[in-house]
Specification:
The protein is mainly alpha-helical. The chain has one domain. 70% of the residues lie in helices and 8% in strands. The protein is built from five helices and three strands. It has a three-stranded antiparallel beta sheet. Strand 2 and strand 3 form a beta hairpin. Helix 2 packs antiparallel against helix 5. The two termini are 26 Å apart.
Length: 152
């Protein structure tokens, strides 16, 4: 499952570096699905303690904020009458920074006794992409240009 999630995220990043239409559904559905999968796995497979939940919440808040910062970095352009997004070098910098911070928080959590399984990758990636989607969505709405239509 982890390899599938990583492959999908790498594909998403590559597509966004090449430039793609900014579709509201694509911006929010994948992160919400990943968060849902992560929470489901956390609750059903790990049964976290109060301390574990505190680490998950702290990491999620940091991931949401760093995702929001990342959402400030893509270039928004009007093409074919709707918005397109394209990742920039700054987006990559924030991705790397986010990964390093997430690794650090994970190390602290595990060092304090939280099991590694209490930090599902799907949850971490989903929360980060949700933060990005919120920031990017707010920026997009501010342009007055419509989102791209949903793909079939």
């Amino acid at each position: 499952m982890t390899l599938i999630v990583i492959a999908l995220v790498v594909g998403l990043v590559v597509k966004r570096f090449l430039g793609e239409p900014l579709n509201a559904r694509d911006l929010f559905v994948p992160p919400v699905v990943l968060v849902g999968i992560g929470v489901y796995g956390l609750v059903n497979d790990v049964h976290p303690s109060g301390g574990d939940i505190a680490w998950v919440v702290a990491a999620s808040v940091v991931g949401l904020v760093l995702g929001g910062v990342r959402g400030l970095t893509p270039r928004l352009v009007t093409k074919e009458g709707h918005l397109w997004q394209r990742y920039t070098a700054w987006t990559l910098v924030v991705w790397v920074l986010s990964a390093a911070v997430n690794f650090g928080i994970g190390h602290l959590a595990v060092s304090s006794g939280t099991p590694e399984q209490a930090r599902p990758m799907t949850l971490a990636i989903g929360v980060s992409l949700l933060g990005e989607g919120i920031a990017l969505g707010v920026r997009a709405l501010g342009t007055g240009v419509p989102f791209a239509p949903a793909r079939r």
